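FAQ

Q: What does a record look like?
A: Structure on top, sequence underneath. For example:
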């Protein structure tokens, strides 16, 4: 078994490009053998210092995590009240679709309002949007826009 985690979302360190892997020695050694061929972001001292500080501040992590969870649940409830189907999520995003409006149409209309969501024009998920859980103000702006569009 190999467990891989980035700190991009869990610790809000996307700009530092930090992550780690924990696993059985042969799997970790295999990663080490190939890492230089695809990892163009060597881990510098500032990134290491940021990662260490992020792990040392457990209170901040827990407050931030709890805020994201609360915002995600609030957004999920609001989207469901607007008729959206929401795939269960434990992440910092929701995968949703509206049965009456195509995902591409919604993405275009939201973009026109300055709201960016991810849309994937792929079979089976073409009507879904991937919506990142932002601040409560971001979520409120999205909800207002979707209320107007649905």
């Amino acid at each position: 078994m190999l467990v891989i985690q980035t700190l991009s979302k869990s610790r809000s360190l996307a700009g530092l490009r930090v992550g780690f892997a924990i696993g059985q020695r042969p799997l970790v050694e295999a990663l080490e053998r190939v890492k230089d061929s695809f990892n163009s972001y060597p881990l510098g001292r500032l990134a290491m210092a940021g990662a260490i500080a992020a792990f040392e501040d457990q209170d901040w992590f827990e407050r931030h995590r709890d805020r994201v969870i609360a915002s995600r649940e609030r957004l999920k409830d609001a989207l469901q009240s607007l008729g959206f189907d929401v795939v269960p999520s434990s992440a910092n995003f929701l995968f949703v679709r509206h049965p009456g409006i195509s995902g591409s149409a919604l993405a275009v209309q939201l973009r026109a309002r300055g709201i960016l969501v991810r849309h994937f024009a792929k079979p089976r998920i073409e009507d879904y949007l991937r919506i990142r859980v932002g601040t409560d103000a971001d979520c409120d702006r999205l909800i207002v826009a979707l209320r107007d569009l649905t």
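Q: Is there anything notable about this one?
A: DSSP finds five helices and six strands in the chain.
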